[in-house]
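On clarity, I found the account of how folds are encoded harder to follow than it need be. What matters is that the chain and its backbone geometry are given together, residue for residue. I therefore recommend that a typical entry be quoted early in the introduction. An entry of this sort, consisting of the sequence and the corresponding backbone structure tokens, reads as follows:
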Amino acid sequence: MADAVVLKPDRDFLKSVIAEGGADMKKCVQCATCSVVCELSTGRTPFPRKEMIWAQWGLKDRLMSDPDVWLCHHCNDCSTHCIRGARPGDLLAAVRHQAVKHYAMPKFLANWMYQVKTLPLMLLIAVFLVGLALIIRGPIEAAFPINDPHGHEFYATLFPHWLLIVYFTSITGLATLVVILGAARFWRAMKVADEAEGRGKAVLGIVPSVINAVKSILTHDKFGKCTSYASRRVAHLLAFYGFTALFVVTVYAVMDLYVYPLVGVDSLYPFDLLHPMKILANVGAVLLIYGCVRAIGDRWSKDDESPKSTTFDWTFVWLLLFVGVSGVITEILRFVGEPADVAWLTTTAYVVYFMHLVGVVGLLVYLPYSKFAHIVYRTVAMIYAEHTGRNLSDSKSLVPVGSGAGQK
């Protein structure tokens, strides 16, 4: 006699999923067409068929511990081939949004990311944080005399480098800690769910699993397998590498300012236009801006079958675009305003710089709660899939690590 299975539907979760893009999921008749046409669903646990029925039943805990939700890249092949118009791709996107809220701390910030009415408040928080840094600057400098050789530079007179680095590093560190804690909870949840079903044994070490996942991310090869909206890969690649280039330049600038002088290497900051780091920064900014513009264009010029976009999606892409554009304008105003030494031009430059910093703070502070967190959770899911062999289509090749079989 089969064991009884107790289902515990979560009605609030079901309502949220429906409101955020899963309204058509009840049309699903479990024909499995979605799992068949999906080029990414080649493992032993094909998706999104099972996710559709779990969502219909309101099984929040099961979906929150499902790595397959994150292995989906929302290319929408499943939705365009669905015979009932149940839109599985949008359903999985809504579940991912719920997962971000589920693992985020504190949860109210994650809830705010989904509501248009709370966006002004979130903006004000970012403004307050940047303003707070300027307020505490005076007392700190009075209590601890700081010798800043670059304090005379154009923007440094408003926001000195030491304050910029300490403040933004602290914010980034705290946000990173929060999202790492969420990712750790996600990993444990995946392990517990798989162990309950007799799966989840390691078939590949963590290090090679990480390497494989990173290779996939760097090439965006999963997007390359999409057919319905393969063009999304280009926008993602441009924005990804543009942001990465700007991050590298930022780290290098910090090293140039405070680390290189300690080992006898003269600082070259601020970089001139022909400095390799300045060239990389400008190229990165162009890639980021064009990638965001292209992504916005893809979302606006959509047909009835294209992936749906929510406040969660739009907030992130517009904020990312704002950071890129304001950064470029800030750079231009520096090269024009500093030699001109005109009061109104200097004031304009400082205002734009302040707004740029507000945008950067918004990206960093809301990392654990925005679509930015997708980078972390999707990476964790991809590593887990490699580690447990979840994405292998041939079950005979699943040999646990340490068994001796297949190890050479």
User: Anything to note?
Assistant: The radius of gyration is 24 Å.
